[in-house]
Amino acid sequence: MNMTNSSNPHDRNDGWFHRRAADALLLLSLLVAIIPETWLPEQVISGAQHALWPYLLATVFIFTGYVGRRQGMHPMLALLCFGALWMLALGCLSMHDHGLNKSFGGDLAIFSAAIGGFMWAAQRDIGAILFQLRAWTVVTLVGTAITIVALLAGVLETLGTGNRLLVYSIYWGTWLLTSAFPFLYATADLGADPELALRRAKWWRLIALAGLGCVLIVGLISATRSVFLSGLAGLLVLAVMEANGRRLNLKIAVVVGCLGVAAAAGTYTLRSLSSSELGARFQERSFQEDGRFIEWEEMCEELEEGLAFIHGKGFGSVFYSTAVSDGAGTYVLSPHIGILTTVFKGGICMFFLCVVVPLVRCVVGLLTSKGGPVPTAACGGVILYAVMASLSGGWDFKELFLLGMFLAIAVQSHRPMAEANLADGAPHRRRLRTLAVS
Hints:
- It is a single chain.
- The chain has 17 helices and two strands.
- It is mostly helical.
- The protein has one domain.
- The protein has a two-stranded antiparallel ribbon.
- Strand 1 and strand 2 form a beta hairpin.
- The longest helix has 28 residues.
- The protein is globular, with a radius of gyration of 22 Å.
């Protein structure tokens, strides 16, 4: 198995300041995002999202650092950039008639985060990416655990109704812990020093499992169906990944088997939890009555004008939803099912290019395991985004940044690992992961 490497000192040091500045600002944005909003002053959380400002400053270093590399653009990144330009152009045409609004800037910052995440990963080797992702996971796990304990102890005021214990910051924590779970678990024994990495692998796997445990706990105490199902989806993706190197029909059998067990166990669990808030929410509404599908119908009504369903309405477009504000209704930037936002902003064409094409690429990558364990694990992160965004949320700069990052790793657009950082003569084990595969 050949190892790609880069021994050019200029290539390793190029953009060092940009990378460090972006990493520090991204960590600051993450720290602010996991702080419960009820613990922050009203002046901080009013208006734009409070975690957005350090992220926007980080994008300056990310974009300038990427341009400074003077290298070609990966086709997958080109698709995302084309989609952004398409929706930007449509939004500018609409802005000419209705004027500038906050929604336009919000959409631009949110969707461009996928591009930013791709460019961020493209400027780093897998060792640097994994170091940052592990740091983000530890910080998020600690913050989420503290929030859970504070909610259960009554120290933190809940924003949920009835018996639901929740604050909105905890949802971001569960999103990161879920999407990063398969990747962290599969790459637990990666490191510049293989022997040291193997000794530490069990701890990283425990951290990944602890993160998923927090996700399931949040799903229970907040009675949030999408969070609970996302945690189960993370386990399913990991099961497929652990069949790495096996025949394709075995992986399909694993998927079918897991779905069968989940269906049987899920029915029993829902009956057992029927008296709890989560079980009641699973059974309280039919599909037609669910707010997600009501929003989809209302969004489609907005797209009935002309060819809007094909080309979309661009950045800044909103639609009236009666599924929010306790049924009173208001204008919203995106539907509850975030993955459908691209249909609204860019039409079926951009949905196919920016969502379907990357998703199909990653599904094939997950099932075939071509390229090695690291790209395969990253494919799992992209697939989990699609699953979670099909349940709830997904149109947010933090979630889309993670999507772009995992997509870059999945298509192996990140920097090759320097040969000097690899240990020669490392023992061959099935669980030992290579840092980059060509």
